[in-house]
Amino acid sequence: MKGPEAEQSKLPRAAKRPGLPRAGGKITRLACARLTAAGIDLQPLLRQARLTLRQVEDEEATFPVQSQIRLLDLAAVALNDDLLGFNLARTFDLREIGLLHYVMASAETLGDALRRVARYSRMINEGVSLTYRDGGDVSVVLAYAGVPRHSDRHQIEFWTIALVRLCRELTARRLSPHAVKFTHHRHEDDAEFNAFLGITAEFGAAIDEIVLAASAKAVPIVGADPYLHNLLVAWCEEALARRSSQSGAVRVQVENALAPLLPHGKVRASDIARTLGMSERTLARRLESEGTTFAAILDQLRCDLAQRHIRDPALSMSEIAWLLGYQEGSAFTHAFKRWTGKTPRQMRASVLGSGGHDVGHENVMIDVPSH
Fold this sequence. Notes:
Blueprint (H helix, E strand, L loop, with lengths): L3 H6 L12 E2 L2 H12 L4 H7 L4 H5 L5 E2 H15 L4 H8 L7 H7 L4 H11 L7 E8 L1 E8 L9 H18 L7 E4 L8 H7 L4 E2 L4 E5 L13 H16 L8 H9 L10 H7 L4 H10 L4 H16 L7 H7 L5 H12 L3 H8 L20
Parallel strand pairs: 5-6
Antiparallel strand pairs: 1-2, 3-4, 4-7, 5-7
């Protein structure tokens, strides 16, 4: 077991690159192990994710959360595993989480353990912030900081399944959540996902959240050790005190507030400003200081999501238009052609094989000119 100095040493570059959230890389290394076992060359995928083999092989190395998200997307396509995050989380040894696992495992009750993971989770991934809520039912809300939430699917699913596993293994009970919510949409067969959870997961929700019965917080942890727990909490507090807390650029905060609202229709800058706790004028001024505008962020977000949705053969063009907040399909087609030079149907034909599956083209990220 590693003390705070060892835990802190895993994130040496974060302090040098403020505003760029970093992760310890456990999920990336698990994905790379799967790729290697399948005989898939890592180098091209790592290059596209802006990672190196040396980083992956160095257990002490960290890298940007965005690179981890990108690598997981690429690995899922290469492995033809649309449930990659789920499958990785379901089978790995939970002790590999490190200090955070032992803090939870030594707590007295599940409620105590969840409070601790919420407080210390950023020690292993600076881009994911957990909040413990205790009002009637108990829940853990997962929010992204400094990382655009809409860019991810596999990492958030890994975190959620890992947390459910922790709740079950630390209490030696097969606890089933009351609800599991994700802000991203999933249209593929999720029967395996739901069978594991014991409920039907909700996709396209307003927040990412795991909800448990109120009684769950009092369930005892089977390996509770108050003396060890106090020691580990002191270590975590010391490590936490050395870290700077960053919420990330305002642009990313706007993207994360916008994404779940798009299907509900027109989204106004004033609504987002209110969500972020500032006036519309202050929001405009802060975005201007970052060289962008609300309209430009909305347009780029729609462009990014459109390229993700176009790869899903289960989605019709009218459904994609709705998910992006367009009331008319013609408006979506016009915008898509402006972004890419192709119609949505032309782009789908170019990225999907005749069988309707992704043929493995490298994702092309298109930057929309600022307004």
